[in-house]
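The pair is quoted verbatim underneath.

:::
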Amino acid sequence: MQAKINDRKGNCLRETSSNVHAISKSKIVESDYLSYSAQCRFFDDSVKDFPVARIHAETPFITGVLEALVVEDPIADLNNRQSRQRFG
């Protein structure tokens, strides 16, 4: 699906089982990063730290300022859940 991320075109994936928003590292700039990271626990019980960025997103599901985990090479530019959340 089409999305707008920080006023740039991108694509998004609505992940119904996700508890976080995630953003492709290629869609953010240095000033988007926040001063903290967040941990994500996966199905295999592994845990990984991710930087957190503040972004403005416009998707079919949610529009506004979001905090998202920054992912190196995701399958979509933005993976979003239905509501906003804060990590810090």
